[in-house]
């Protein structure tokens, strides 16, 4: 409205007119035309910062918003730590870096810009480790394994640059804050099962030697893990007086060895279950006719 008044004032102050508004409009001298065009440009172009351009790189107008999840990386610097995954007692806080993966983030803004995408500036991230009660870990504590403490809090503040296919260029970064509440523990899993021989005779005497390896979520061998081993359909576990199930514990290398026999030819299955967390696996064995 202020600019419309400025235009009206221009006509009132201009002395080069006659009684006709139309004659006045077309009788303006060159200098007056230049002034008029300047006013028009001011009126119609003054709000250009909120107008969408063609296909450019970044957003202008209303600042975009970001929400969602970031990811930390395992000590190998490659493998993602999933949101609900237990951290390992041997993990060291300052070795767990922030991932640049942005698939867990959502980008949106009030301008309706299309093709929103974001870049996470991981090298500028501020990662704060705290105990469950909110007390910060000092630099020494962050350089040591997490150990037996079960729960932590992690606050991450990181710059995120959001761009689009339709927004007017801007280089502003958004400060995105993410809170993560990891727990620490061991997750046993059967990481490997193998047979020593591809096939044995189905004579009730020759046996398949099955070797099971139990590790944690960082693939470190676990000792003293109880595993239930079971078979069926006439298959027996050797040295058990014909039983079809047995519970054995892993040695210091995380391994169990068991012998399985059958007097029925064909493919048979052995089943394995870790007692602590019900992790299950299986393997097929080939018994051939004598």
UniProtKB/TrEMBL annotation:
Residues 191-288 form the Big-1 domain. It comes from the Bacteria. Coiled coil: none annotated. Belongs to the intimin/invasin family. This is Big-1 domain-containing protein. It comes from Hamiltonella defensa subsp. Acyrthosiphon pisum (strain 5AT).
């Amino acid at each position: 409205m202020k600019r419309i008044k400025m235009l009206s004032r221009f006509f009132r102050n201009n002395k080069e007119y006659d009684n006709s508004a139309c004659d006045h409009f077309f009788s303006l001298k060159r200098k007056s035309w230049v002034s008029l065009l300047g006013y028009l440009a001011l009126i119609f172009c003054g709000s250009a910062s909120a107008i969408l351009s063609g296909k450019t790189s970044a957003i202008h107008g209303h600042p975009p918003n970001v929400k969602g999840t970031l990811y930390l990386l395992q000590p190998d610097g490659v493998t993602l730590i999933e949101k609900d995954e237990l951290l390992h007692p041997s993990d060291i806080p300052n070795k767990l870096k922030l991932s640049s993966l942005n698939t867990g983030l959502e980008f949106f803004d009030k301008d309706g810009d299309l093709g929103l995408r974001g870049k996470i500036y991981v090298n500028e991230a501020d990662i704060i480790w705290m105990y469950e009660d909110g007390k910060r870990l000092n630099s020494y504590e962050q350089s040591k394994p997490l150990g037996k403490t079960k729960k932590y809090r992690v606050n991450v503040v990181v710059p995120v640059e959001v761009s689009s296919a339709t927004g007017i260029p801007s280089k502003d970064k958004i400060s995105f804050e993410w809170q993560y509440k990891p727990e620490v523990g061991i997750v046993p899993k059967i990481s490997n099962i193998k047979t020593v021989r591809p096939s044995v005779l189905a004579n009730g005497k020759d046996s398949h030697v099955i070797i099971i390896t139990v590790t944690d979520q960082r693939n470190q061998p676990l000792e003293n893990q109880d595993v239930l081993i079971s078979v069926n359909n006439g298959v027996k576990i050797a040295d058990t007086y014909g039983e079809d199930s047995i519970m054995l514990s892993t040695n210091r290398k995380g391994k169990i060895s068991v012998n399985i026999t059958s007097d029925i030819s064909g493919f048979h299955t052995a089943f394995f279950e870790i007692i602590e967390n019900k992790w299950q696996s299986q393997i097929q064995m080939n018994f051939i006719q004598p």
